Amino acid sequence: MNEIAPTTEQILRELFADQDVKISSNRVGQLTLEVPAEHWQFVAQKLRDDERLAFQQLIDLCGVDYLGYGNDEWETEQASSEGFSRGVDALGPGRFDWAHRPESAEVENRFAVVVHLLSLKHNRRLRLRCFPPLQPMPILATLVEIWNSANWYEREAFDLFGIVFEGHPDLRRILTDYGFVGHPFRKDYPLIGNVTVRYDETQRRVIYDTVEIEPRVTVPRVVRRDSRYVQTDHNLADGQDTEA
Q1: Which residues contact 187 (CB under 8 A, 6 or more apart)?
Q2: pLDDT for 73-82, tens place per residue?
Q3: Contact, 84 vs 221, CB < 8 A?
Q4: Which end of the chain is more exposed for a tag (fewer CB within 10 A), N or C?
């Protein structure tokens, strides 16, 4: 009688019994392996080299900021059943200027690095997550030596979230400018930024100036079929020019 092949979860629990990992699965069956920072490279190496798993392809790596996680800025309790009075509060993430930005709150496991792996050999996918410690910036070992495709992904996470990947061969900004201050995907970074870049005709050079834009709350426009569109259809049917 043929033995039933072990599942990915069973293999992970057996392989990393001593690494204090956490394994979970969501409603759609996505498997997540949460790894302590001190075992990050060790676990990644095993996931790639163990023939029962063979996760030889890193398809994505990104940073996550859990500051304000779960806070909803949509005002829906007082909204009508049709949703016409739905709006947003003005105290949502990023709705402040640079001078009055809030201090970074002490949130346990604020930053995370999330990796998605693919095993072509076994047709399996796996999600890795790690919460790097803050000291004072989040620091985590690089995965470039294990998966070379992590190179630019880690640079992006460093640029946008300020997550430092120790051992990275060329860790520098990749999307923002060389003189950019801060990390724009952090939840305590204002939506309007901190400086304005413009060309000065008098000085004949690019200069950095103070931001003149006021933080604002916008409400998505919802197009509904009402009397305006009915009247337009009626005019088109009669051959009338709606622009008149």
Answers
A1: 65, 67, 68, 93, 94
A2: 666 566 555 5
A3: no
A4: N
